[in-house]
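Before the break, one more example. Copy the sequence into your notebook; we will annotate it together after we see the structure.
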Amino acid sequence: MQNTGFINGNGDSKNALVVIFLRGGADGLNMVVPVEDDAYYNARPLVGISKQSTAPLDGTFALNPQLAPLADLYRAGDLAIVHCAGSEDQTRSHFEAQDSMEHGGTGGGGWLGRYLRYRPNGPGGPLAAVAIGSAAPEALRGAPATVVMESFADFALGERAPAAMSALERLYAPETDALGVAARSTLAALGKITQLDEKSYTPSNGANYPQGQLGDGLCRIAQMLKANVGLEAACLDLGGWDSHFASGALMDPLMKQLAEGMAAFHADLNGAMRNTTLVVMTEFGRRVYENASLGTDHGRASVMFVMGGGARGGKVYCDWKGLAMDKLEAPGDLPVQNNYRDVLAPILARHSGMSDFSRVFPDYAVLPLGIYA
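Here is what the structure looks like once it is written out:
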């Protein structure tokens, strides 16, 4: 089969963006802990993370022990952390906040779908956007094409696949118009992806993905990136972060899964991480003060992670004001200092050369965060 650059737009050296959405409102204060702020421990005498158990980052913050696998990536400059991150949504409703963040503004479709449609270097090929799971997230709504998959078995064509593929190749071989190019590109991508097998795959550099949907999803994304199927944007979720009750018992296994998955993905791709950016985001954070159920209620700001892609890591991006009551947003929340769009915009610019974000983030004046040197 003739391979074409249309598979991923401009050959197999495209940048890729992987977005992990932590659904439920992840508690950024217990993930990236302000260990030098006494007000944190005053507000959370029972659910606060002891300084002695954390992995230090700088003179203000430290990683929750369950996120310790990320410490080496941070120290190596491959992981940037953005604290006090969130949106302008004030509802503190999971559904409203997720919807607002995934749509990226008031325009139709999702922010990532609009980016893939309007970016300067074209819409990409048939496998440019992939959602791991049973449904496409709102962020990808409006993308030129989105593939939803739970495993590579979803692409199985049965015993007659070779004959059917050959027939389609012969059918579209003489076509020189856009339809013919797109058809050949789709067949080429399908030919690549049907050769992938998660059961026989051995990750590189001893990478060990955690069991579960996130680890499995990241492993499949790594396989697709290595196979050069034209993947440029991938979305997957890790749910269950709504920590109203017994926050430690709820969050610890999720944080462990997240950190181990990210570390394995980084090790597996190795040098390819220069062209791959992984972003972790959530709809909102939690109330600064713990509640009577050893948890925390819905709040405002949380934390974002940016791994790879040339981002300037080894730094927590935040002008920390502290957690004294006069620094909080009523009724006791960490204020949003870094809008999520300002974190995403420089990544999109680096991946595509985009400089006008009015279509991707309508009705918002982007102030790109300086995560690149």
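The radius of gyration is 21 Å. Residues 247-269 form the longest helix (23 residues). Try to locate both features in your own notes.
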